[in-house]
Amino acid sequence: MSVPSQMKCLVKETEKEGYDLVTRPVPKAGPGDVIIKIDKVSICGSDINLWKWNDVAKVIATIPFIPGHEATGVVAAAGEGVTELRAGQRVAVENHFYCGSCYLCKEARGDICQRMDQYGHGRGTDQGGCCQFSRVPARFCYALTRDLTPDQAVLLEPMGVAHNAVDSIDVKGEDVLVLGCGPVGLFAVAVAGALGQSGGGGGEGEGEGGGERIHASEDAPSHKQHIYIYIYIYIYIYIYIYIYIYIYNIYIYIHTNTHTLKHIYICINIYILFSNLSFVSYYSVFHYA
Ligand SMILES: [Zn+2]
Ligand SMILES: [Zn+2]
Questions:
Q1: Which ligand gives the minimal distance to the CA of 101?
Q2: 262 CA distance to ligand 1 middle (Å)
Q3: Helix 260-288 to helix 223-256 angle, to the nearest 10 degrees?
């Protein structure tokens, strides 16, 4: 593929709304880099902030930059040391430039790398997809192994967001509820279907899964455990009240030297004991029924 010397691109170089369309030299591939002839760039929610250059943009981006972090294209040239990609290969760009050496990267959590740079946001690179040719480290390019159209391939980045979320839980055979069906939510529905959620409303994303529904967590206490818990609580309360009344009896006896009140309290004691036991047995029967 012939690579021209000049190209058109969008840039933001000053703190203002919008982008400038400029002509620039096509970047050269450094060691480990590839030059991609960009086919498509999709516009993310964050791109709206970057275009406006609002307070959110000032947190997530650094001037200067070429916008466009969701990009796909064809490798036009490969730099020194690049062995896994070759010219003509179609790729999708991984926009999260994780460091690969921090604690989280070593724990396979490059998605929340502590030293994350970001393509299209001016973080660690001024490159982005809104240009004709873009320089990207080869390790942040995914070679397309299927015959995806450019319109499909450019959506691999937002689909990856949904996939990462759904893949972190085991949806196989489960019912899945996705709240908030914007683009990433719709991808979550499709990914859950592909990963085998139990179906029912999956639409095109409905998978072949279809397992049993699980109604309750296995960790929830059983009915039998509930009964023991209630028996324990009532015995505890009974003993507490009994001790209280007994001490009160002694107090009354000492101060009045009368047996009458003592007898009344013993009757109350017996009543409380039986009412407790009857409640416990009622509860047991009710839950066994
Ligand atoms: Zn995005
Ligand atoms: Zn890292």
A1: 2
A2: 78
A3: 180
CB 56 within 8 A of CB 107: no
pLDDT for 194-227, tens place per residue?
988 775 444 444 343 333 332 333 445 566 666 7
CA of 104 to the centre of ligand 2 (A): 6
- CA-based diameter of the chain, in Å? 113
Contacts of 81 (CB under 8 A, 6+ apart): 31, 32
pTM: predicted TM-score of the whole model, two decimal places: 0.67
How much distance in Å is there from the Cα of 238 to the middle of ligand 1?
62
CA of 123 to the centre of ligand 2 (A): 14
CA of 267 to the centre of ligand 1 (A): 74
CA distances from 200 to 30, 132, 173, 207 (A): 50, 43, 11, 10
Predicted local confidence at residue 63, as pLDDT: 97
The average pLDDT across 86-105 equals 96
Residues, Cβ < 5 Å to ion ligand 1: 44
Name the nearest CA neighbour of 119 among 151, 101, 147, 92: 92
